Amino acid sequence: QSDNSDKSSAESDSETEVEQVSVYHKLLATLKTSPESESEEEEDESESEEAEESEMETDSEGSQETGEEPDGGEEDKNGVPDREEGVTATDAAEQTLDQEQADGTDASCDPSHGVTEEFTDVKHESEFSLETNFMEEESGDCNADKRDSNSSQAFSEDPFKQHMDKELEEKEVEKMSTLPKTSSQSKWPRLGQLTFSSILEKHKTLKADKEVDVRQLYLHKPLESTWPKVNKQFLSSVNKPSDPSFFTPLQRELFCIMNTYRDLFYPERNALTNGEEIRQAYCLHALNHVLKANAQVLSNNAKRRDQKPGTDNDDYRDQGLTRPKVLMIVPFRECALRIVHIFINLLEVNEKRKIDVSNKKRFKGEFGSDPEEKPPNLKRPEDYEAVFAGNIDDHFRIGVAILQKSMRLYAPFYSSDIIIASPLGMRTVIGAEGEKKRDFDFLSSIEILIIDQADIYLMQNWEHVLHLMKHMNLLPLDSHGVDFSRVRMLNLNNWSKYYRQTLLFSALQDPQINSVFNKHCFNYMGQVAIRNVPLSGSISHVVVQLPHVFRRLEAENLTSVIDARFQFFIDKVLPEYRDAIMSHTLIYVPSYFDYVRLRNYFKKEDLNFTHICEYTKKAGICRARRFFLKGEKQFLLFTERFHFYKRYIIKGIRNLIFYELPTYSHFYSEICNMMKTTDSGVDATWTCTVLYSKYDAQKLAAVVGIDRTAQMLQSKKNVHLFVTGEN
Q1: How many domains does the chain have?
Q2: Is the distance from CB of 377 to CB of 46 less than 8 angstroms?
Q3: Residue 101, phi then psi, degrees to nearest 5
Q4: UTP25 NTP hydrolase-like domain spans which residues (predicted)?
Q5: Share of the chain above pLDDT 90, in %
Q6: Of 530, 548, 563, which marks where a domain is finished?
Q7: What is the pTM of this model?
Q8: Cα–Cα–Cα angle for 81, 87, 93, nearest 5°?
């Protein structure tokens, strides 16, 4: 599918400048939080110790992993972005970028082109300008023409038109900023438990459509005819050929919600199972929105051209203060590549009617990946392979303009309809207060914000997501040449945040993700969140025989829980493990801040320990793993992020402590099951201790299931025991 879309477009690549690697690019290489550079991975489990030793020696010259700790993982002294000061691995990139911006060299997403400023495709500027183009008459699609001519009624029922044309009143806006939301529940066949909440809308409970005719979805041409072909790969025998919507059951229910312009939070996205069908559905919605919005502008251009001079008409308010309408946040370049491919396929009616895609070759070079780069012998879980497929660089942003039968990649932001970016890509262009060179006016009139794979940003840098949300839909500081007579009143009133639809997809429920949905989304149409509770938790996937002791700690509020956990750990838990008999103890720590605190405490107390985090060089990792396996070090401090990005099997664990419950519930069973690789002597007694508080309800439910969670949070007892793996 991707191949033929490559042959398509009359290639119009206007840039063939000499590639030059900037300082920033070199820096990016060192920041890769990726398994790409692990070709000589010490992962083949059958390898002998000596091989590991020798590999460690060859590797100690320094590796290109993640922003790393110096000297093989000793104390961070300098040169490393250490989160103790609240700095992150990406900050170094940002500082370099600021420097480069100051030098006027590069604010583009991919610096390898050595271009000045954001890349501007001057050649295609007029061709893609919304101001100077008009609606083309299509002779072929007489049905659509008919529909367009007598369609004022049909058009007024179009959800896009209804949503964007609604005129809010002052008092309604006031209500939205003061009143609490009211909510109602509903159960849908495929999505399960839904919570609808809103302030203005009376709860007309949305019903799940059993069947949807693709012709009733108000899809803009050519989507009605291209969608069935593009989505064919996901339609199994489950979907009877007679189903006229060409949606999978999941897509049908999600699209049904998206198409009403309500906000949506779906926390069950899974890279292995439904990730791609969800991507198809939101791409269809985003493209449908842009095509309708642009068609409205072009048709009004023609009407204005034909009206008598001197007639003043307020009927043509059809745009925002800036052109970008859709912002899509995705974690890796590979995701942007897939989205653009879907757009191209949705716009190409058939083999004969290819669309012209400008700068496609450059896009393929910068967002594609070389399959040979991947080391051949890595054994990783399949969910890991699915998440980290293709080009996993996490610093990019690209503007896309769409006009009738052509599409322009690398459009300057103010001439783009859609912006696809990573949180870091947005962070470096938005900048921070006090910086000379920063820009966020292009976010002023975003009508659809799509945040996909939100859970991954918890592993990258959640601050970037919050920073973006704070800069959405603000009044622009500059007019950017807009014709104010064409700007919708809602934008002039600074009410665009009440019209923005946010679609949030994640693999899990998490308080920080919930908070973005609850506190940064103001859509007057209200919100829909899917809230299914896990009946059985991931503990049921633990196959080793193991007692799991869950210990509840008390904390007054959310802020005090961090200190309470630390005190509880050093007062109650650690003393039981200090005895030499409790050797081979792995301590799993989700938060980097907690890890640093524990590491400093262990040093101060002179405990016999080693540690691995996402910044540890490969040599340090080998050393720590070997010391731990041989029992030369009693404790191993181990961060969740390291596990997320590497997924190594740690051998030799006999005692496990979860300092906090894992963000991803399947990591719980995965870490427990690593004990399978430990030689179990006759009298081997393994242990597992888990710390939790009432603020960990969602994570706890994902591990032990909802019923046990309720018991464990309400019970007078604060120690609970589970045993797995009994025959």
Answers
A1: 2
A2: no
A3: -65, -40
A4: 261-528
A5: 53
A6: 530
A7: 0.82
A8: 65
